[in-house]
Every structure is written in structure tokens, then in C-alpha cells.
What we know:
By secondary structure, the chain is of the alpha+beta class. The protein has helices at residues 75-78, 88-94, 151-161, 171-182; strands at residues 2-3, 11-15, 23-26, 31-32, 45-49, 58-62, 69-73, 102-109, 118-119, 125-128, 133-136, 148-149.
Amino acid sequence: MNMSNKAKSGSLEVQPYQRLVSLPIKSENIFHFPQGLPAFEHVKEFVFLLPPNTQPFIFMQAIAPADLAFVCIDPFLVCPDYKPSLGASDLSFLNLKRPEDALLLTIVTVRHAMTETTTNLQAPLVINIQSCVGKQIICDGQHYPVRYRIWDALDRMAASTARDEGGNLKPECEAVKARDESGPATAG
Length: 188
């Protein structure tokens, strides 16, 4: 990782990969995971990147090593009835006093066949957005899948946003539907 000295604005400059531009990271945007993550206990500082063209996915980019990043998702988007229970020790560790101060994300495993992409609902990331402290917890006493297939849920989400309030397909989606129904284009 190429990290310059403090920039004029009080931020660090991080170059996550050689192929990407460097990103200025302000210290107040760094999230601390004091225990790291399982198998990555030595990695304790991350930033969350939200590129608009990858929604609903969020990238949890390590500050160091810069070549480590996790793909995450809001579990409530793909599993609306998700209700993980946070234990007293986790609440204390994170100093969480109010539910609205907690951000929950789950780590995504991207497969070669995108329809096989999964997320781990049994071990969500819980982040105190006030203190920027996070921890990956285990949902004790609950039995959520560690490989929850998310593609069907994402398709349902896309279908619901493609319809207007009356349930009709939005005009911009009609053209896509017509194109998809006509089959692949052939060269003439």
C-alpha cells in the first residue's frame, strides 16, 4: 500500500490497488474492528466504499493490507424477516445503547456463477456508527444460514423497483422486457 504522509486536509491517501486511483480517506471515516475478523485478526481498520454502480453491494476495504476487501450487503434487503439477536457482551463491547446506532452488514461470497452468490446471515458485522467500532458476531441461539443465496432476493428487489405504484411495469423497463422476450439479437 502506498500511504502518503498526512495530506493538507488532515486525511490519508490510500492506493488500494495499482489499477485504481488513490482515494483520500479521512480519519473519521475509518471503522475500527479491535478484534479483526475471523482469519484476519491482524486487520483492524476498514473504510466502506459505496460505488453507485455496484449497489446494493458495499465494499469493506482494509486500510492495510490494501489488497484486502470484503463485499458486503445489507442483510435486510435480501432477507426482510432477518432478526439477529445481539448478546449483552456484544452490545457492551460495541457500546451500543440505541438500535438506530447499529449498522448491520453481512459478508458476501461471490461465486463464478453469480446466481450462486451467498451471504453469511449467521455472522453479521455489527457496527456502532457513532463510535465507528465494529465486530463480527455469531448469532448465538439462532440458526441462520452461513450460505444464504441472495440472487433470488435481488431479482425480487429489482422487479419491485421496476414497477410503478399501480403495479405496472415502468416505461423504461418495458423496453428491456421486450428486448429480453425477443431473444438475442442476430447479425444481419
